[in-house]
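Weekly puzzle thread! Below is a chain. First person to post its structure in token form gets bragging rights.
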Amino acid sequence: MKSRSYAQDLLRWLRLLAMVEVAWDRAGQGEVVLLVAWMRNAPNPQRRRRDPGQCGAVNLKTGKPNLDAGYAKATINHAPTAIAGLYDFHLHTGGSPLVNPVPAGPLRRQMLAHRSPLEPVPIVRRAPLRQKTTAQQPRSIPDQLWAELFAAMRSTRDRALLACYVCSGARASELLALRAEDIDWQGMRMWVTRKGSDVLSVVPLSPEAAVLLAAYLSEAGLPPPGTPVWRASRGRPRPLSYPAVRRMLQRANEMLGTNWSLHDIRHTTCARMAGDPALTLPEIQAVMRHTQLSTTQKYMPPGWTS
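Winning reply:
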């Protein structure tokens, strides 16, 4: 998922350079400004809906606003980050170009530098061309609506996948890469590859999810060693992709009149653990693998004290 988003950003950048007939190693800040301006005004192909009037409106059932028709501010900010990484790599390896076209102030570089997780995050001004974003509040799925969403799943695989998501708190791409050898049935846990690294992290596996996962593997058969557990149910044998899982959730949303996302399931996991008085804040942080303890604290119920 992460590498796919970077690839899309770089492909969009190279297409723009081809359109304005500028070589990639001769691009400057003007081309980056052009890309950001285009993304601020262009429609996002992923936002195509049957009713354009729904874009940006609040869903009455979930209380969540629908996504706007254009690119989100976070997506726009991700593009210069991916482009800057490409040019930094070539500068580091001694190749061309000689100048990174993405502007970044010295304070911004200081904020992105390596530091201890125990140190506070420095607050600096936004770098040029960066869009102002607001911090999103946790958005968990209530138990009643969760039961409706779970009942809307069409197959044992989809129900098992949803159950594994909510019991483990794993990110979408992390769980999709799960292999059979990464499941500890006796210990009721799974190992997933942490986002942005090759490090394996352990996540819990609930008894309900284990039963559904075993039922799915009994129906589909064990995958070849070294290949993901989750596979497409149609067409040639292949791993289940992120777009296919997103479409699975979209079908359920269309049936229920909701607008849940895969990341809402991760929020639901954290909110459920936060409501459990037997769990401490560091334990919840360890399961969710939040870098900052302040991120986990957002899920604590009102009036909670450490």
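Puzzle host: Confirmed. Bonus trivia for everyone else. The first helix runs from residue 2 to 19.
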